[in-house]
Amino acid sequence: MDDKTRTEIEAAVMRALVKHLQERTDVQNIDLMNLAGFCRNCLAKWWKAEAEARGFEPSYDGAREVIYGMPYGEWKDKYQREATPEQQNRYEETKPLHAKISGHN
Prior knowledge:
Layout: H1 3-23, H2 29-36, H3 40-53, H4 60-68, H5 72-79, H6 85-94
């Protein structure tokens, strides 16, 4: 497989992942962090970092809007729930495993 095709496939996979997460508003970011060590905000930070590496200067809020499909504040108001004590405890336990870009470890 050539590099161009691989990049096109990777881009399509990313778009599919973002679309899936936009549709799965029932899945909380804390659940993603606890299970996988990354969340929508991490994806936005990766997106922003890659855009900056290519000479663009997106805002973090703009990057989150790309990932969430709407302004972050709107998503929070519509879909974010208060984390349970169990979720918060698990979050603290898994911090060493969180994506480095998360800023939590």
